[in-house]
Structures
1.
Amino acid sequence: MKKITIITALLFLGFVGFAQNHITRTGTIQFFSETDIENIEAINNQVSSVINTENGEIVFSVLMKAFTFEKALMQEHFNEKYVESEKFPKAKFKGKVTNFSLSDLTEKPKEFSITGSLLIHGVTKEINESIMLSKNNKNLIIGTSTFTVKPEDYSIEIPSIVRGNISKTIEIKVKMDYEKMD
Amino acid sequence: MKSITKYTLFGLLALALVGGGLGYYMFNKKVPTLEKTNPDFVISADDLFNEFENDESKALKKFENKIIEVTGKVISVKNNKFDSNIILVAEMAMIGGVNCSFKYKQENEVKKGSMVTIKGQCQGFLMDVVLNNCQLIK
């Protein structure tokens, strides 16, 4: 077993050694739903993401169950009734930052557009959003993005009895700080 | 007759109050912390990571949603505005380990390289084994 792990590790090393990758395993995704009846907010600070700084390719991977809510009942409903996280445990995004260039990044955030496919609840959609990228004094690449999704676009059914409590569009806030992988 | 109606009404009212109160309590109940929960598994960060890397679906069946007390060496500490992450290294992993998320910002002296024991609920596997709602044991 050890042998296999070492071989896999070496292959992986080779793969990442040539590509210039920056990585985070503690990225944050927050979402908000605001209605007159109640506000719902959840946060996940264990998002994994890799950006290839040579061509701007970017991937995100997140465990739906790792979203934490303030209220226990909300968290239970989210997992069991809406996103069905037993059946669809991960959400993923795979895409590209258009015209990405590492040398263009400064401490002042610059807007880029990002396109790719977003997989939530077993449904994949092409999205096109904007992302702000900057580089801080510790040489981390900071990426932030705010966009909205509609639950119905991802076949997430909200029962009519609580439809008034949940907003039709959910605001999603993403914050990543990528370290260089050597 | 009259008094029976009165008692019935009073009974119903009491029931409605208790029911409503219970409903309100359930609705507002916070996600509980794991402070007083006993762990289902006590394991090292290396062993936990290896179980997931060797067979993710088997490890998921065993560990998902379970409370795990894990001991390992700290490879990174990150404090956000309101919450914190501590990542424990797994010896056999290239980049992976055990990713522990704390709901509240940690005001402790945990440093990179120190050995810690953390209790948390296992939510699955990305690059790391993901534990959340964590508590620092020592």
2.
Amino acid sequence: MTVTENESSGQPGEAAAPPPGCPMHGLVPGYPFGEPVTTELHPKYAEIREQAALTRVNMQYGGEAWLATRHADVKTVLADRRFSREATVGKDVPRVRKAVEELNIVSMDDPEHGRLRKLVAKAFTVRRVEQMRPRAQEIADELLDKMLASGNTGDLAAQYAWMLPITVICEMLDVPLEDHYKFRAWIDTWLTLGDEHTLEEMNEARFEKLPEYMSSLIAKRRAQPGDDLLSALVAARDEQDKLSEEELITMSIALLATGHHTTANQLANHLYILLSRREEWQKLVDRPELLNTAIEELLRVTPLSPYSENTRIATEDLELGGQLVKAGEAVMIFPAVGNRDPRVFDNPEDLDLTREHNPHIAFGHGIHHCLGAPLARLELQVALGTLLRRLPEVELAVPAEDVPWKTDNVVRGVAGLPVRW
Amino acid sequence: MTAVTWHIEVDQHACMGAGLCNGNLPDRFRLAGGKAVPVEARIEPDEDVLDAADYCPYRAIDVTDLTTGDSLVAVD
């Protein structure tokens, strides 16, 4: 990705190129600062975090924005309703994705966001998710049995890290597991940045293929309701009129996609981090009681996305970190950058699997705090715990630097994790 | 004027400071030391507070009816 050829004006919402030789322009760094490298963050983030609370950046698309890098400010932007997500929908706002924001639960403001979230929130509480632990354990064991039976090498990402969350979300929604090759391909095309895909491809996946697929499942639920989450959403639509047909389809797509895509990539990346630093893996083999603390630390240090995403627009003039942000200006945040703020974390760049004080914001903060966080935690605990217990000798089959990484995806992830045992 | 008959309690061990309750109802909940606490523990009946309890991913919010002593939060 090049960042030098999209210079544009400072007006959010406009993509016009600046006049040649604009004297102000050279002072504003282009964003992204560079290509993502494994789970690392570009050193520029730490540099600008110490210089100022907010930094002006020239985004890949849509012009200039403020980038907040400190933990407290990131939390404020996430929680304060004067930073609107909905104001970005359908507009050419500063961003890194080629596609403009679509209207869904992730981009809605309250009260509309709350109306939809309420319909599914109870299915993802700690208590409800905890009841799924025995089944998640069973799935993890079966996947591992299958992998072990196939020889002494495998792809830990494809055969294990991806299949656990996919199987769980398919069972929650009662989506046929054998369809996963199909819907994963569409989701992967939809959730791209657009460097390697055309807008037409992205839109076809999101607005044609996935809705067609979901509509056919919804029709089946109408004919024969079950006790799955999709049936519950259909009932909320048909019996209580709590959401529109379009919202029902969008919501079910979002549940299927975010229900596995994020956790699968995080899990595979966590395994990459641990297996590429053998002493850390061994620490967890030797001290299984560290598992939950270690997972929180892995969540802290592993950026979910390659770059800052989910633009916010200030709805009024306000002050953030001592800086005036004017109404209509865009503010970017990157939770992973806040998660390495030395104001909050001791030795923030170090992986410390015993870290006790860890108020990370990997799941976000405020009204958009990850709906599936309890489920994600459960899956990470079951998947990593099972592997440490049953296959402590597993190791990377290639040098860590040869592990392939995905490109052009809104989520960071290894493209495969070759291992042997 | 509505009588103050409800009591809000946030379990400080269960709370993860996600900020959902505070984000939804800043007049009812605030964050202190990374955890949510009620702005006022004793309130007049307010259905929005029950919604906040339902939203909480960590089920950290309990609301009781002081006249009966019963919890008003649905068990999931």
